[in-house]
Amino acid sequence: MTKSLTVIILIISLSTTAGSQVPVREEPRHKPVLQNKYIRLLDVWLPPGDTTMYHIHATPSLFVVLTSTLTASQTMGGLWTSDRSDAGKTWYRSFINDTLVHRVANIDTSAFHVNDIEILSSFDSSSHKQALSYPLLFENDRAYAYELKSSSLNNKVISGRGPIVAELVSGKAQFHDAKAKTATAMQAGKYVYIPPGTEFYFSTGRTDDMNLVLFEIK
């Protein structure tokens, strides 16, 4: 860790009151923007030089990073560690037997943006439905994660799936509700929630460099 990075973290640490830890959904920078039977989506924005409160992750969660940002994190009672969070990075963590209590600092010059999707309930995990024919980032017993590029799209209508969160990391895309015959322009850094059973597809311009992440709840 460089000397300047150490100084930045020290300043952040001294300017932030640790206080008692709170559930992640109650941490002020983790904004609940969508909740239903299946998921709770937390939209996280952290300005440069800011740090979160200590917060508790205890619910199985999917994550997607929407900016490329230098951050640092500290588990309760541990040391600060730095990390480069690249836009488009995704992961899953169950938190069932490894509850995490930590805080995160933005030590970059631009905002840090990430979405935390807590899985509150399964949809139909007993059906053992096969994955969609999109490139698969990962799969586990709770969800599928797909990465779509412009070349992945074929305008074929998808139906009979579980709840899906579509996250546009970069580029341009349109979400089409085939039954309602509507099209919604997606914005980079924004999400679209697709309820179970929706008939849909995505489209984009032929030359668009698009990165679209889909999380499907099993």
Characterization of the model:
6% of the residues lie in helices and 45% in strands. With 218 residues, the protein is mainly beta. The chain starts with a helix and ends with a strand. Residues 13-18 have low confidence and may be disordered. The protein has one helix spanning 3-15; strands at 22-23, 30-35, 39-46, 55-57, 61-65, 69-75, 80-85, 90-93, 100-106, 112-119, 136-139, 143-148, 164-170, 173-177, 182-186, 191-194, 200-203, 211-217. The chain folds into two domains: 3-119, Jelly Rolls (Sandwich), CATH 2.60.120; 125-217, Jelly Rolls (Sandwich).
Mean of all residue-level pLDDT scores: 91
Order of helices and strands: HEEEEEEEEEEEEEEEEEE
Q: What do we call the CATH topology of the largest domain? A: Jelly Rolls
CATH class annotation of the largest domain: Mainly Beta
Number of domains: 2
What CATH architecture of the largest domain do you see?
Sandwich
Q: Could you say which overall geometry the principal axes of the C-alpha atoms support?
A: globular
- Main beta-sheet strand count, sense and barrel state: 5 strands, mixed
Radius of gyration over all CA atoms, rounded = 18 Å
Q: What are the low-pLDDT stretches, counting only 5+ consecutive residues below 50?
A: 13-18
> Into which percent range does the helicity of residues fall?
under 10%
